[in-house]
Design goal:
The complex is a heterodimer of chains A (237) and B (375).
Chain A: E1 4-13, E2 16-26, E3 31-36, H1 42-49, E4 57-62, E5 65-66, H2 75-78, E6 80-83, H3 95-102, H4 109-122, H5 124-128, H6 139-151, E7 157-161, H7 169-184, E8 188-193, H8 196-202, E9 205-210, E10 213-219, H9 220-225, H10 227-233
Parallel strand pairs in A: 3-8, 3-9, 6-7, 7-8
Antiparallel strand pairs in A: 1-2, 1-4, 4-5, 9-10
Helix pairs in contact in A: 3-6
Chain B: H1 3-26, H2 32-58, H3 63-94, H4 101-121, H5 124-127, H6 129-156, H7 164-186, E1 202-205, E2 208-211, H8 212-234, H9 236-246, H10 248-253, H11 258-283, H12 294-306, H13 312-334, H14 346-360, H15 367-374
Antiparallel strand pairs in B: 1-2
Helix pairs in contact in B: 1-2, 2-13, 3-8, 3-11, 3-12, 3-13, 4-6, 4-7, 4-11, 4-12, 6-11, 8-9, 8-11, 9-11, 12-13, 12-14, 13-14
The chains are: A alpha/beta (237), B mainly alpha (375).
Chain lengths: 237, 375
């Protein structure tokens, strides 16, 4: 059984048919990436999985359970955490408070403290700025915070929406290295990216979305060498 | 002519000179709106300064009178501050102005009346006033809290995604519903609070005889505000409130039940309003009636705007400031200008302040500064 199964999901924004029957699977331990242009439905797919949007048709199964009957704030308890697009850190709260919010549903104080220390070890910058307001940090630091905040929930599946957006190339490398590290420690990752070449480098498999439909799915290596993908998303002629 | 007179004249002169300089610098870009605003900007400080000068020079009031005016202003202001916190808490999270909040306060005062009466009949107020106050506050806070939460569930939650105007109109409607429910059950008579003998005593401060009731009121309000501050800054629920007020969607991703947090916010605001109702009873025992929530409600709203609406640390001092201005203003400024029965214009001062803040500093007097400091 796959960790995550999305079956024939249709989603709408008002009358706009945003997802036209998306089906995908993510196996335990994988890094899977969704690539595609603007408005292809990548973020909408993630929002449907994290229950921020209800699909009009179709099912989302996580570890075999249909989660669509639960409200979005229950997703973390079931093991799905998400790094939202644009990072979504709480700007007027300190770094530490942001991390505490990531562990909101947990009650094991000692475990939370240990995980906060781990976050500071993973990104020493966060440790240095623990009592600084998150809104005063740079984009890269905010992305580090958003990512560690999601990990505070100890998720089995981590959804990441455009982690490279607006970041300097050096920082993009740091973030992607961390994704690999987190994955090696046992967290499954579903990654949505505009930066398709970076995403395909670290992913095991990939799906290509186009106007709300999956047009291609294959091993990351295969996609990387596919001429049509190269032309459309990797900027190679 | 003594020196105070000339100091005031110098300040007035400085205001005029500065205004002329300012007009000289930027009159080319002025529209007619700017000229009218200039009239306000220039007229108001001169009006204030001339009034203050005349009063102080005339020596009509002695120090002890000023002290008792300030302390009674602080006591009244602390009631405004407690109610204002309810407006600001809800606005911070839902961006809505809960115009029924004044009536939640009224319900608390009503409840306090019944509890206080029962306790007075049992002789409890005389034998152990502190316990009696605590019980009254607890009951009133609980009643107001339930009303606020019910209001949110029945009236506001179904409109969560509706345009803001709809919610505003609903809030005004809810205000009437509460008022007339109370009228229906208890009639429209004004009911006087029981005499609380231990609070009748007065304490001398700087020569003024300050009623003990006013000091108790101030003390209770300060304790409650301190508790609220700790709640918002230090507890898990308080942090969740701040997270929800910043970004509801991300808060959901963190596992925060947003509806629960919103209900909690209404509960806290309601409890503070209920406590303010008790304090009102202690401070001014003329009595309770079903329309009594309106004026404190609107004044507290003024205080909330003054402090920058949505800004919790701002609401507390601006409630106090409003109370003090209201109590000093008529005697200090209006009396000096020779306006007869200046105290009748107390309410006008509060609303003039509201209008001025909305024109010149819509983000509130404390709003911007605090947020800059925090950032």
């Amino acid at each position: 059984m796959a960790l995550l199964e999305v079956e024939n999901v249709h989603a709408y924004y008002g009358n706009i048919h945003a997802l036209k029957g998306i089906s995908l699977t993510v196996e335990k331990g994988e890094i899977v990436t969704l690539i595609g242009g603007n408005g292809a439905g990548k973020s909408t797919t993630l929002r449907t999985i994290s229950a921020l949007m209800k699909p009009r048709e179709g099912k989302v199964l996580f570890e075999g359970n249909d989660l669509s009957k639960y409200p979005p704030h229950n997703m973390v308890r079931h093991g799905i955490a998400m790094v939202p697009e644009g990072r979504g850190v709480f700007a007027k709260m300190t770094v530490r408070e942001n991390l505490e919010m990531g562990a909101y549903y947990r009650n094991d104080k000692a475990g939370i403290e240990a995980d906060i220390e781990n976050a500071y070890t993973l990104f020493p910058r966060l440790g240095e700025r623990r009592s600084q307001l998150a809104g005063t940090m740079s984009g890269g630091e905010q992305q580090m915070l958003a990512m560690t905040r999601a990990l505070m929930a100890r998720p089995r599946l981590l959804l990441m929406d455009e982690p490279s957006m607006g970041l300097a190339p050096v920082l993009v490398d740091v973030i992607f290295d961390t994704i690999v590290k987190v994955n090696e420690q046992g967290t499954t990752v579903l990654l949505v990216e505009q930066n398709a070449s970076m995403a395909l480098q670290i992913a095991n498999r990939g799906y290509v979305l186009q106007t709300g439909e999956i047009v291609m799915s294959a091993d990351a290596k295969v996609l990387k060498n596919d001429p049509s993908v190269q032309k459309a998303y990797l900027g190679i002629d | 002519m003594d020196i105070t007179y000339w100091i005031f004249n110098l300040i007035i002169l400085a205001v005029i000179v500065y205004s002329i300089y300012w007009v000289y610098k930027s009159y080319k870009t002025f529209t007619w709106v700017d000229w009218i605003l200039l009239l306000f900007r220039l007229g108001l400080p001169i009006f204030l300064l001339v009034g203050m000068r005349n009063t102080i020079v005339s020596g009509k009031y002695s120090l002890d009178q000023w002290v008792s005016l300030i302390i009674s202003g602080l006591a009244q202001g602390s009631i405004y501050a407690l109610i204002a916190l309810g407006y600001t808490l809800v606005y911070g999270i839902l961006l809505m102005i809960n115009f029924a909040h004044g009536d939640v306060f009224m319900a608390g005062a009503f409840c306090a009346y019944f509890v206080a009466n029962a306790l007075a009949k049992a002789g409890f107020w005389q034998s152990s006033p502190i316990v009696a106050i605590a019980i009254t506050i607890a009951v009133a806070a609980l009643v107001s809290m339930s009303i606020a939460v019910t209001l949110e569930k029945l009236a506001y939650r179904p409109l969560r995604s509706a345009p803001r105007l709809n919610v505003l109109i609903t809030a005004i409607g809810a205000s009437f519903v509460i008022q007339y429910l109370i009228k229906g059950f208890f009639g429209s008579a004004v009911r006087a609070y029981p005499e609380v003998a231990p609070l009748k005593a007065s304490i001398p401060i700087l020569g003024a005889k300050v009623p003990l009731a006013q000091l108790v009121v101030l003390l209770i309000a300060m304790i409650l505000m301190g508790l609220l501050y700790l709640l918002v800054e230090k507890t898990k629920m308080g942090k969740a409130m701040r997270a929800v007020s910043e970004n509801k969607e991300v808060a959901r991703l963190m596992g925060i039940d947003v509806n629960q947090v919103i209900a909690f916010t209404f509960a806290i605001g309601g409890a503070l309003a209920g406590a303010a109702g008790v304090i009102e009873g202690l401070y001014s025992p003329q009595g309770v009636t079903f329309t009594m929530g309106f004026f404190p409600g609107v004044k507290a709203f003024t205080a909330a705007v003054l402090g920058g609406i949505g800004n919790i640390p701002g609401a507390m001092p601006s409630g106090l400031v409003l109370g003090v201005f209201e109590s000093l203003g008529p005697n200090l400024v209006l009396g000096g200008l020779g306006i007869p029965s200046a105290n009748q214009l107390k309410d006008a001062i509060a609303f003039l302040m509201l209008v001025m803040v909305l024109i010149f500093r819509p983000s509130g007097i404390l709003g911007e500064k605090l947020s800059e400091k925090k950032a």
